[in-house]
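Dear colleague,

Following up on Tuesday's group meeting, I ran the structure prediction for the two-component complex that the binding team flagged. I've pasted the input sequences exactly as they went in, so you can double-check that nothing got truncated or mislabelled along the way. The structure tokens for the whole assembly follow below. Feel free to forward this to whoever is handling the docking comparison.

Inputs:
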Amino acid sequence: MTDDRESILSRVRGALAPLDERAAMPEYTTEIAVMRQMIAGRDLLTVFTERIRLVNGVALTDPAALVEKLRAGGWTHGYCDPALWPRLAPHFGADFKVEIEFDRARVDDYAFGITRAAGAIAETGTIILNEATTSRRLAALTPWVHVAVVERARIFADLPQAVAALGPDSNVIWCTGPSKTADVEGILIEGVHGPGIQIALVMQGA
Amino acid sequence: MRFQQIDQFASELKADKRASVYQSTKSTHEKRTKLLFDEFADPNRLRQIAGEIKQHTLENLDTYLPAVEAKMKANGVQVHWAATAEAANAAVLAIMRARGATKMVKAKTMVSEETELAHFLEKHGIEALETDLGEFIVQIDDDHPSHIVRPIIHKNRREIATSFEREGLGAYNDDPETITRRARQFLRHKYLAADVGLTGANFVSVESGRMVLVTNEGNSRFCLAATKCHIAMIGIEKLVPRDRDLALLLNLLGRSGTAQELTVYTEFISGPKSPTQPDGPEEMHVIFVDNGRTEVLASDCRDILRCIRCGACLNVCPVYRQASGHAYRSVYPGPVGAVLSPLLMGDKFAEKADLPKASSLCGACNEVCPVNIPIPDLLLRLRNKAKEEGVPSPGTPPMGAWALLASQPMAWRAALVGGKVMNYLPTKLLPIPALRAWEAKRALPAWRGGEFRKWMKSRKSRAGL
């Protein structure tokens, strides 16, 4: 394998040696790749709410509305990040069974998973998950409904801003709507390997 | 009459397959155009800049590759190098054996299609399961993908339902939603039982050593939540210099590939899981794969290495729409494949030398390309290469007689008038192979030779010239 490293790098050098001049890195501002007119001067939560709806996700600001939605869908058994549970528990009725430990041997038992998000992107209706804030990768992925609790102040306007905020985290995931496929005859089906329902619960001081 | 291979495939393609490929490529292409041009003031500028970024990276791979290797190692990633497909597969096997691993779940990666990794591992007693719905169906059918982004664009729901029934995934049901749910239920327990998750990478930032993976289904997320070891096979051309370049390229990738503003899941992975995270890989390996890329880099077609595998050129291509992906007999079909596939053949170039010729050079592929690859120019260079290497070209009519005629004005004028005789001849019966091949698929238009000259003359006289 060390030999392969040397042989690849020497072939690369050999391939590039005859070039008189190498292509320069273009100078550009990341602003060019932003859908400006969509964001300009608008409240980011409003834009985010509008945009997540376009990708068939849901943004809520009231925990009571979340509980209502879960109940209406018949999703009464789920997981909640233990750090969030004290704050959310008062909203859940006795008809719910919420676990704060996630057991991977019983993935099919959890209809919903509630975990913290690292932020959101208004421009695209995206929820940002990362290693530091997600209590369990599996709990944010395997239940039919994923609820990401987003801090109101952590909504970024656009992709360049969200990229700038990646930080040192080793696993950042942008989620834009529920998991989907169009592999069968180009027909859109939601809920493939990940959540079929993606909810963002936007809160102050989450 | 013998056609070139790609023409032969196209002529034998079943009408329903052609119709499904045509419909879905056309609709994706139309959505893409709307999405790009509605939202950005100058989408062409984005394509140009993205192309320049990738070209710059390619032409500086000699510094960027060691730089990204160092960064990744600092991030806790084990970096391997593989000059050939065999070496890449062997590296994966060695990693698995060292862990005593016997089960792999795979996200979609084109480079693993190049190396035929799943077949290789299965020969060595390792279960290597494709998890992308389309790739999973390709795998259970022992078929090949026919599109970079939409592997089963050539299959209809009835065929898929039959395969699922055969594989014991439930009684025949061709409802796409039922098919998807059954795959979900079957595969989730496979992820949880697997030892290793294998992915590719769409981009790698040299600056941070982050790799970026995009998927819609969430299968790569599942691979990296359920298993303890992550192996990423990455072509050496996937680098971009900085994190900020990712924002631009991601904006273009989803729109160009599937007409989405952003693919559902965009994962930025720079190392194994953190110690406090219960789920995910404790060990992360990256295998940088050459497999012919350095040869392409050394050629005058190096621009093709900018490709970000979005599939937009397939969707817009009139030849792909008629021929479908299998006609290209390669991992990479369509316009990008017509350039890349023959080049990746190395000294077996001649076997795929027909691909660059299967193009009208209309230029649509260049116009949609998110990294602005001049595909028609590259196709011409490869045609020239085939000619210089004396690759035979069956089915191409001899042009010598035409050249002679066209260079003699008197003869040309006579032929224009004389050609009218064609309108009265049973052309279908003439013993001219090229003509018969043409007429097997369509009618020869009526001969109208000389009309343009007549029009030109009358125009001049009207204008008093």
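Chain A has one domain: 46-203.

Cheers,
M.
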